[in-house]
What does this fold into?
Amino acid sequence: MMFPTGLYGILLILCIGCLGENLQFPEFNGATGKSVVLVPEDPPYISSQIISITWAFGVNTIILSNAAGTSISPEYIGRVNLNTTTAAIELKYLRLDDSGTYRLTVSTSDFQNYIGQTSLKVYETVSDTTLIGPQESLIEEESSANITCEGSGHITSMEWMKDKNPLTPINITFSSDNRSVLISPVIRSDSGEYQCTLRNPFSSDTANLRLIINYGPEDVFIDGPNEAALGSPVLLSCSATSVPPASFTWSFNGSDTGVTTNTFTIDKSDITHSGDYICTAHNDVTEINVSQRHLLVVKEDDGDGGGGLTTGAIVGIVIGVLVAVAGICGLIFYFIKQKQRSGPGNNNAETIYENVDF
Ligand SMILES: *[C@@H]1O[C@H](CO)[C@@H](O)[C@H](O)[C@H]1NC(C)=O
Ligand SMILES: *[C@@H]1O[C@H](CO)[C@@H](O)[C@H](O)[C@H]1NC(C)=O
It folds into this structure.
């Protein structure tokens, strides 16, 4: 069938303007539950008077706005906003099935029609990110830790951080899918806040996990005098490097004193306080004990002259060491450092450091 030639001419005249000018759009992406605004680049109608705007999704009209008002398709009520100046449409509470082609038609009072289309891709929002780590206590040089990052949604990349810095693979092995890391064996500097972020181009979700690496006690040290004047107070203070913090016990001349604080105090020293003090630091998690020995001599203060001191009886306590102090410059430092290990296993190992100083 052929149209009469005259009809072509009439159609041509009617369609001046109805073919429309193309609107240019970028591509749009969104994430489920979030919003996206679809708007053409540099809309040419912006300085004209708009008389109608139509947005359609596939073949279905979403919204039509003209002099008679605005009508919204029932399934879009509450989910769209239209800006009648720019013709931008905001789509809210995005769903996966909002992915597809959107078409915009704008008519202006000067009989121009503007038409364009764009596509929207909706990704599933990343959510429920969790870091799963070891349940048991971690001990330095003994334990290893496997941390796994899990989450749901459309995940295109993931990132590991520790204490806000990228996780560096020094003693760390990443699984081939990057979802888990194995730290073996753990060392104290592995303590800290681990963070995993799962992403897609339009959403991300982060989870945190704190790891504590237990170690010690080490560097056990007793601070206090080795000599005290009769009647004076004495304070011995024991310290240790330990995670968790060490607990302390004190023995005196081989007997437990019942003191469980880091300090041992004598309000008014007398001759019976002279002897061998041992502070033992204990770590509940590593089950390691480390001891430090300290000698105290209480003596009668006979003034600054310092002659004729008789300390031999007291010094006799000290593992066969006898020191005679005489003269004005009668100060001799004797230092023994001795390390012993008792017991067959690594746990419960007991180390005694001896620090004789008088
Ligand atoms: C429409 O968009 C323009 C440009 O972004 C903005 O200035 C104006 O406030 C918007 N109007 C409404 C009703 O949101
Ligand atoms: C860590 O544990 C996860 C889950 O338990 C496992 O799939 C993964 O292979 C482990 N990673 C390493 C490096 O051992």
